[in-house]
Amino acid sequence: MFSGLKDETVGRLPGQVAGQQFLIQDCENCNIYVFDHSATITIDDCTNCVIFLGPVKGSVFFRNCRDCKCTLACQQFRVRDCRKLEVFLCCATQPIIESSTNIKFGCFQWYYPELAFQFKDAGLSIFNNTWSNIHDFTPVSGELNWSLLPENAVVQDHVPLPTTEELKAVRVSTEANRSIVPVSRGQRQKNSDESCLVVLFAGDYTIANARKLIDEMVGKGFFLVQTKEVSMKAEDAQRVFGEKAPDFLPLLNKGPVIALEFNGDGAVEGCQLIVNEIFNGTKMFVSESKETASGDVDSFYNFADIQMGI
């Protein structure tokens, strides 16, 4: 617990929380860093604080907070009776706000060496992030209680790195290409009418291959819109992959698939070239043409959202 603090920088190092519940309350002008995984975290009555939370297996709940800036990863995210929050978020389910105003969201963007293992310990996938798909329980006609931060927002300008010697020992980077969670555009307006779906099947190098493909595509000027990790059954494959389904059916038993949606003029051809050059011999589903790609994307993500209850 951190309670009743003012003008302090405090934190927990990797291994110090180890999956327990955590509570932050009545803090003012504090910088708070929880560099570990936890069960649930509640933040009550905090003002003008900077908060980093490592992966949370269950829910993160902000109540009656204002003027706080946060980076966090969780299964469920809820905000009630808050105003002026900025949140760089990784959330496996739809984030919910209630009786709150001026809540701004961006995509989680953070790295330190222990973070990937903490995601595993918390049972969270780095590819399941609905950070921009916000549900407002108490909408006000003609007003929007939430918005997305500018795409070029620099995480460190909002959530600066810790300055105390103890916490500086955690080797943090906020560079987009090092982020444990792939930085996606989410629900932002797409730049192009052309999207491409790529599905990677479970294997020893699936996560590394997904990261490599994202780096290559983003490096060529395409945008990562969304990612998903989900289990597929034979009938799901039939619906998503159509006549190609028989090629992929034997691969579905190995574990969940990882799907990536890229956007930009020439995305389908660009993606096919990279996959053929770099991943030759690795079985992947890639949209065949610009004409079929948007249907591929829609059918996969419709299935995935139903499967995950989003």
TrEMBL record:
GO CC, one annotated term: cytoplasm
Keyword Nucleotide-binding annotated: yes
Taxonomic superkingdom: Eukaryota
Chain positions recorded as GTP binding sites: 58-59, 75-78
Chief location of this protein within or outside the cell: membrane
A molecular function (GO) term: GTP binding
Keywords, ordered alphabetically: Cell membrane, GTP-binding, GTPase activation, Lipoprotein, Membrane, Myristate, Nucleotide-binding, Palmitate
BP-aspect Gene Ontology terms: post-Golgi vesicle-mediated transport
Subcellular location: Cell membrane
Keyword Lipid metabolism on entry: no
Membrane topology value: Lipid-anchor
Assembly description: Found in a complex with ARL3, RP2 and UNC119 (or UNC119B); RP2 induces hydrolysis of GTP ARL3 in the complex, leading to the release of UNC119 (or UNC119B). Interacts with ARL3; interaction is direct and stimulated with the activated GTP-bound form of ARL3.
Family from the record: Belongs to the NDK family.
Reported function: Acts as a GTPase-activating protein (GAP) involved in trafficking between the Golgi and the ciliary membrane. Involved in localization of proteins, such as NPHP3, to the cilium membrane by inducing hydrolysis of GTP ARL3, leading to the release of UNC119 (or UNC119B). Acts as a GTPase-activating protein (GAP) for tubulin in concert with tubulin-specific chaperone C, but does not enhance tubulin heterodimerization. Acts as a guanine nucleotide dissociation inhibitor towards ADP-ribosylation factor-like proteins. Acts as a GTPase-activating protein (GAP) for tubulin in concert with tubulin-specific chaperone C, but does not enhance tubulin heterodimerization.
Name this polypeptide is given: Protein XRP2
Species in which this protein is naturally found: Callorhinus ursinus
Gene this chain is encoded by: RP2
